[in-house]
Automatic annotation (TrEMBL), chain A:
It catalyses: (2R)-2,3-dihydroxy-3-methylbutanoate + NADP(+) = (2S)-2-acetolactate + NADPH + H(+); (2R,3R)-2,3-dihydroxy-3-methylpentanoate + NADP(+) = (S)-2-ethyl-2-hydroxy-3-oxobutanoate + NADPH + H(+). HAMAP family: IlvC. Mg(2+) 2 binds at D217, E389, E393. NADP(+) binds at C45, G46, A47, Q48, R68, R76, S78, D108, K109, Q110, G158. Its EC number is 1.1.1.86. It comes from Marinobacterium lutimaris. Substrate binds at S278, S414. The keyword Transcription regulation does not apply. Involved in the biosynthesis of branched-chain amino acids (BCAA). Catalyzes an alkyl-migration followed by a ketol-acid reduction of (S)-2-acetolactate (S2AL) to yield (R)-2,3-dihydroxy-isovalerate. In the isomerase reaction, S2AL is rearranged via a Mg-dependent methyl migration to produce 3-hydroxy-3-methyl-2-ketobutyrate (HMKB). In the reductase reaction, this 2-ketoacid undergoes a metal-dependent reduction by NADPH to yield (R)-2,3-dihydroxy-isovalerate. This is Ketol-acid reductoisomerase (NADP(+)). The gene is ilvC. It comes from the Bacteria.
UniProtKB/TrEMBL annotation, chain B:
One of its GO terms (molecular function) is ATP binding. PROSITE patterns: ABC_TRANSPORTER_1, ABC_TRANSPORTER_2. This is Molybdate transport system ATP-binding protein. Residues 5-233, 258-474 form the ABC transporter domain. The keyword Manganese does not apply. Keywords: ATP-binding, Nucleotide-binding. It comes from Marinobacterium lutimaris. It comes from the Bacteria.
Length: 490, 475
C-alpha cells in the first residue's frame, strides 16, 4: 500500500486539502432518515465506539457490535461495554454480512488488519465508515469498488460525544466522503444522517475531505494540543523548582492550570484568555508569546511538512512494525519526569491565581494555538478546519491533564497523537533551552511584582488590537456562536 | 440586650379548637418581630399567647411585661361581645345606646394627649360621641389601635394592623410605629411580606401550630427564602399555560402512560431489578420508595430512556414499545424530570430564564433561539416562584434550593403527561424542602399531570398520591 495523498497530482492534493465548508442546520432537515431501518454494525467498543453507538441507538437507529472472537470468549472490556449496555454482540462472521453500514471505530493502528478482515464479509453496496482517515490517506488502503466510504469524526473525546448528546446537544463534527468510493452517490446523505444520529448537527458540521481531516488532525494533535502541553508542563515545572517554588504548589499550578486558563480560551478565544490577566501581565504574556512563536515556527513548519509529505506516518508505521519500541520507551520516559512524579500539593489556588501566576503558560498556549493555526492555513487547510484542530480541542486535552497529568493525557489520546506528541516534545524542549534560561518566577510561579498596574496606553492598545485581529479569533467567534451555553469545567 | 420574653417548649390549647405546640422562642426588648405564616397556621394564636390567651398545657412562658397592648380581630370581637353582654345585663327596659367611643378611648387612658392626637389623625373626631358598637369594623379597628398606642404598653402586639386601612391612614400608622420603635418592642402579625415595616428586625414563621423558622432580617439569604416560601404558600397564582406552538402529540387515552413487564436489570452478575411489573395509568399519582441501591433511579431511567438496558426490556411508554426505531427525544418530550443528578449535570452558564425555557427542548442549556411566547411563559413561572428579579442572573450563582425550584419549573413548563420527581428534596434544608413541597402541591392540584414521586422521607408526603411502590434490595 502506498501513501494515497502522495499518489495524487498536486492540483488534486490542493483541492482536497482546501475542502472545508461549514454546513447550515437546514441541510440536516432529513434527520436520520437515510439510516432508518438499516443495520449499523460497530467494530470496536472503546470510548468512541461505545459512545457513538449509544447516541445512534438513542436516535432510533439499529446498532450492534462486532468483536473479535477472543474479545467475546475472554469477556474483555469491549465485550462488557457492549453487553452491559444492552447491545447485540457477535463475531465479524455473524454480523458483518448483515450490515448496511460498518462503523470502523478501532484505533488507527488496527485499521489495516480490521478492514482486511471485514471487507470480504461486507455485502455488496454496503457502506464503510471511519472516524479518522489515516488508513485511507496515509496507508493507502484500497476499498472494494462497490462499497461507499465515508467519515464522520466528532471533534471531541468519546465521553464528551455522549455527555453532550444526553444534554440535548452534540459536539462539532467533521464529515467527508471518499470520492474514490461513492459508487451510488449516497455517501453524503449517509454521513449527514450519521452526524444527526450522534447529535453533531446541533454543534456544527464541517464538510471536509479525508485528506484535509488527516493532515489537519495530525498537525493539531502533535503540536499545540498535546506536544505543547507536554513540553510546557515539563519546562514550567523544572523552572519553578529551580526558582525555589514549593514543588507541590508548582505541580498543582500546572496540573490544573492548563484546564483553568484554556477554559477562558474555550469561551472567548485567545483574546479572552489574555484579558484575564492584569494589563502589565497581559503585555508580558504577549511579548513572551511573540518570542516563543519566533523560536518555534521552524518546528511547526517541520511538523506540517513531515505530515504533508508522509514522512511522519512512514516513520511512525516503522515503529508499529517494530512493536512500538519507541512509543513505549517514550511513554516510560514521560512517567519519569519530575512533574509527573511530584503530586499536586494540598494548597488552595484560586481561579484567578492560575492566570496571575501562570503568565508563561498563557503565553505558551497563545503561541501554540496561533502557530498551529497559521501553519495549517499556510499549508492550504481551511480556517474552520484549522480552528477545530487547534484552539477548539486545546481545552479538551487540558482537561485530561487535570485528571491525571501527562499520563492521563497520553492514555486518552490515540497512539498516533501520543507518538506525535513525543516527537514534538523531544524537539521542542532543547529548542526552548536558551529562552527558558531567561525565565524567572515572575512569569511562572509567583506572578509579576509591580508597584502599580499602570501600563503605557499606546502599547496596551497595540497589544489588544493584535490579539483581536488574529485570524483564529475571527473564525473562532463565528464557530463558537454555534456552541452556546457551554458546560462549565471548574 | 435587656430582659427577654422566653417561651420554652410551650404548648398552648385554645378551647380544643387549636393548639400551638412545643414553641421555643425568645424575644429581647430591643427586637421587633413579624410573625407570619399561611392562613390557619397559628400566627395570630402565637401573638395572642403573649397577651395571655389560651391555656398552657406544658412548657413555660416567662418575662412577659405587665402591660401588653393587643390589637387583633379576636380582641376586637371580644370587646364587641363584652359590650353586647353589658347590654344584655341591663335590666332597664330602654334602648341602650352603649358606651360612647370617647369613653372607650379616654377612660383609663395613660396618655390622653397622644390619644387626642391619634383621634385626630385617624379621623375619628366626629365619631367620639357615637356608641362604640355602632362603629363600622374599620372604625372599631382604628379605635382599638388608638387605645393600644396610647396605653403606654411595655409590649405592643398588632395583628394585621394594616388590614382594611385606607392608604393615607396606613402611611400615618407606619410612620407613627416607626417613631416609637425605641420606646416599645413590637410584634406584628402579618400575612404579607411587602407590608413589613423597615424597623422589623426578626421574622417568625408559623406552620401548622409550630414555630418552624425564626430568621434574623440581617441574614439576607434566609430572609429571601422565607419570603419565597410565604409567597408560594399564600399567593393564589395559577400554573402558567403550556406553549400552544409546541403542543405535544396526543396520546391514546385508552393506553397506560407506562407499562413495564418482567423488568430485569443487571450489571455483570449483579442483579438490580428482577422480574418487576409496573403499570402507570394516566392520572394515577405514584410514590416510589426503597432503600439505597434498591434500583429506584434505575427503574426511573428505564422509563426516561436514560438507561441503556431499556432496549433489552419489555417497556411500553407513551405509545412506543421501546427498541422499534423511536428516538429518546420522542420519549422525553412526554416527561418532566427533576433529580439531584440533573442538578449536578446542569452546570451551564445560562440565565435562570433560559433554564426554564430549556424545558421546552428537554436540553440542558439552550442551543437554539427561544420564541417570544416561550419567554413569556418563563416569566410567568419566575413570577410564580417569586424569582422575577433573578430572571437574567446566572443559574449557577443561585442557592441550591432556588436551583431546585427552577428545575421543577423547567420540568413543568411543557405540561408533561408524566412528572418524575426523584428525591426532589434531597440535600435541601428544611426551609427549601417546604418551598419545594409547596410548589409540587401547587402543581399536583393545578394540572393534568401524573406525578411519580420518589422519596424515602416519610414526612415529605404529597397530598393526592395514593399509589405506592416499594422496592427492596434484589438478592
Amino acid at each position: 500500500m502506498a501513501n494515497y495523498f502522495n499518489t495524487l497530482p498536486l492540483r488534486e492534493q490542493l483541492e482536497q486539502l482546501g475542502k472545508c465548508r461549514f454546513m447550515a442546520l437546514s441541510e440536516f432537515a432529513d434527520g436520520v432518515e437515510a439510516l432508518k431501518g438499516k443495520k449499523m454494525v460497530v467494530i470496536g467498543c472503546g470510548a468512541q465506539g461505545l459512545n457513538q453507538g449509544l447516541n445512534l441507538r438513542d436516535s432510533g437507529l439499529d446498532v450492534s457490535y462486532a468483536l473479535r472472537p477472543e474479545a467475546i470468549e475472554q469477556k474483555r472490556q469491549s465485550w462488557k461495554n457492549a453487553t452491559e449496555n444492552g447491545f447485540t454482540v457477535g463475531t465479524y462472521e455473524e454480523l458483518i454480512p448483515t450490515a448496511d453500514v460498518v462503523l470502523n471505530l478501532t484505533p488507527d493502528k488496527q485499521h489495516t488488519s480490521v478492514v482486511n478482515a471485514v471487507m470480504p464479509l461486507m455485502k455488496e453496496g454496503a457502506c464503510l465508515s471511519y472516524s479518522h482517515g489515516f488508513n485511507i490517506v496515509e496507508e493507502g488502503m484500497k476499498i472494494r469498488d462497490d462499497l461507499t466510504v465515508i467519515m464522520v469524526a466528532p471533534k471531541c473525546p468519546g465521553s464528551e460525544v455522549r455527555a453532550e448528546y444526553v444534554r440535548g446537544f452534540g459536539v462539532p463534527t467533521l464529515i467527508a466522503v471518499h470520492e474514490d468510493n461513492d459508487p451510488k452517490g449516497e455517501g453524503l446523505a449517509l454521513a449527514k444522517a450519521y452526524a444527526v444520529g450522534t447529535g453533531g448537527h446541533k454543534a456544527g458540521v464541517l464538510m471536509s475531505s479525508f485528506i484535509a481531516e488527516v493532515k489537519s488532525d495530525l498537525m493539531g494533535e502533535q503540536t499545540i494540543l498535546c506536544g505543547m502541553l507536554q513540553t510546557g508542563s515539563i519546562l514550567c515545572f523544572d523552572k519553578m523548582i529551580e526558582e525555589g517554588i514549593d514543588a507541590g504548589y508548582a505541580s498543582k499550578l500546572i496540573q490544573y492550570g492548563w484546564e483553568t486558563i484554556t477554559e477562558a480560551l474555550k469561551y472567548g478565544g485567545v483574546t479572552n484568555m489574555l484579558d484575564r490577566l492584569s494589563n502589565p501581565a497581559k503585555i508580558k504574556a504577549f511579548d513572551l508569546a511573540e518570542e516563543l512563536k519566533q523560536i518555534m515556527r521552524p518546528l511547526y513548519n517541520k511538523h506540517q511538512d513531515d505530515i504533508i509529505d508522509g514522512t511522519f506516518s512512514r516513520v511512525m508505521m516503522e515503529d508499529w512494525a517494530n512493536d512500538d519500541k519507541n512509543l513505549l520507551q517514550w511513554r516510560a520516559d514521560t512517567a519519569e519526569t519530575n512533574f509527573e512524579k511530584t503530586p499536586a500539593g494540598d494548597v488552595e489556588i484560586s481561579e484567578q491565581e492560575y492566570f496571575d501566576n501562570g503568565i508563561l503558560m498563557v503565553a505558551m498556549v497563545k503561541a501554540g494555538v496561533e502557530l498551529a493555526f497559521e501553519t495549517m492555513t499556510a499549508a492550504g487547510i481551511i480556517a474552520e478546519s484549522a480552528y477545530y484542530e487547534s484552539l477548539h480541542e486545546t481545552p479538551l486535552i487540558a482537561n485530561t491533564i487535570a485528571r491525571k497529568k501527562l499520563y492521563e493525557m497520553n492514555a486518552t489520546i490515540s497512539d498516533t497523537a501520543e507518538y506525535g506528541c513525543y516527537l514534538y516534545n523531544h524537539a521542542c524542549v532543547p529548542l526552548l533551552g536558551d529562552f527558558m534560561k531567561g525565565i524567572k518566577s515572575d512569569v511562572i510561579g509567583k506572578g509579576l511584582s509591580v508597584e502599580d498596574n499602570g501600563v503605557d496606553n499606546a502599547r496596551l492598545i497595540e497589544v489588544n488590537a493584535a490579539l483581536r485581529s488574529h485570524p483564529v479569533e475571527a473564525v473562532g467567534s463565528v464557530l463558537r456562536g454555534h456552541m452556546a451555553d457551554m458546560k462549565k469545567i471548574v | 440586650m435587656t430582659a427577654s420574653i422566653c417561651l420554652q417548649n410551650l404548648t398552648v390549647n385554645f378551647d380544643d379548637r387549636f393548639k400551638l405546640s412545643e414553641i421555643d422562642w425568645s424575644i429581647t426588648s430591643d427586637q421587633h418581630w413579624v410573625i407570619t405564616g399561611t392562613n390557619g397556621a397559628g400566627k395570630s394564636a402565637l401573638g395572642a399567647v403573649l397577651a395571655g390567651a389560651g391555656e398552657i398545657e406544658s412548657g413555660t412562658l416567662s418575662g412577659v411585661p405587665g402591660k401588653v397592648g393587643l390589637v387583633s380581630f379576636e380582641a376586637q370581637a371580644e370587646l364587641i361581645a363584652q359590650e353586647l353582654k353589658k347590654d344584655d345585663a341591663d335590666i332597664m327596659d330602654v334602648i341602650a345606646e352603649g358606651t360612647p367611643v370617647r369613653e372607650m378611648i379616654f377612660n383609663d387612658c395613660a396618655d390622653p394627649d397622644l390619644a387626642s392626637e391619634l383621634v385626630e389623625k385617624f379621623g375619628l373626631t366626629g365619631l367620639l360621641d357615637r356608641a362604640f358598637r355602632k362603629l363600622s369594623t374599620g372604625e372599631t379597628r382604628k379605635m382599638m389601635l388608638i387605645r393600644a398606642l396610647s396605653s403606654k404598653p411595655d409590649l405592643l402586639i398588632l395583628d394585621e394592623p394594616f388590614d382594611g386601612l385606607d392608604a393615607n391612614t396606613l402611611v400615618m400608622l407606619q410612620e407613627h410605629l416607626a417613631a416609637i420603635v425605641d420606646d416599645v418592642p413590637m410584634i406584628l402579625v402579618l400575612n404579607r411580606f411587602d407590608e413589613m415595616p423597615a424597623f422589623i428586625t426578626h421574622v417568625a414563621y408559623v406552620d401548622k401550630g409550630r414555630l418552624s423558622h425564626t430568621v434574623d432580617r440581617q441574614d439576607e439569604t434566609a430572609f429571601n427564602e422565607l419570603y419565597q416560601l410565604l409567597h408560594l404558600k399564600t399567593t393564589d397564582l395559577d400554573v402558567p399555560e403550556a406553549d400552544p406552538a409546541s403542543k405535544l402529540p396526543d396520546l391514546d387515552p385508552a393506553q397506560p402512560l407506562v407499562k413495564l413487564k418482567n423488568i430485569r436489570v443487571k450489571y455483570g452478575d449483579d442483579v438490580i431489578i428482577d422480574g418487576l411489573d409496573w403499570t402507570i395509568e394516566r392520572g394515577q399519582h405514584w410514590q416510589l420508595s426503597g432503600p439505597n441501591g434498591s434500583g429506584k433511579t434505575c427503574l426511573l431511567s428505564l422509563i426516561t430512556g436514560d438507561h441503556p438496558q431499556c432496549y433489552v426490556n419489555d417497556i411500553f411508554v407513551f405509545g412506543f414499545q421501546r427498541g422499534n426505531g423511536e428516538s429518546i427525544w420522542q420519549i422525553k418530550q412526554f416527561i418532566g424530570y427533576v433529580s439531584t443528578a440533573l442538578q449536578w449535570e446542569y452546570r451551564v452558564s445560562t440565565s435562570c430564564k433560559n433554564v426554564i425555557i430549556s424545558g421546552f427542548y428537554d436540553s440542558i442549556g439552550m442551543y437554539t433561539k427561544s420564541t417570544d411566547k416561550q419567554k413569556e411563559i418563563a416569566d410567568q413561572w419566575l413570577a410564580l416562584l417569586g424569582m422575577s428579579d433573578r430572571a437574567d442572573q446566572p443559574f449557577n450563582k443561585l442557592s441550591y434550593g432556588d436551583q431546585r425550584l427552577l428545575l421543577i419549573a423547567r420540568a413543568m413548563v411543557k405540561h408533561p403527561p408524566l412528572l418524575i420527581l426523584d428525591e426532589p428534596c434531597l440535600g435541601l434544608d428544611d426551609m427549601n424542602r417546604q418551598l419545594v413541597l409547596a410548589l409540587i402541591e401547587k402543581i399536583c392540584e393545578a394540572k393534568n399531570t401524573t406525578v411519580l414521586y420518589v422519596n424515602h422521607h416519610a414526612e415529605d408526603q404529597i397530598a393526592g398520591i395514593e399509589n405506592f411502590l416499594a422496592l427492596s434490595k434484589a438478592g
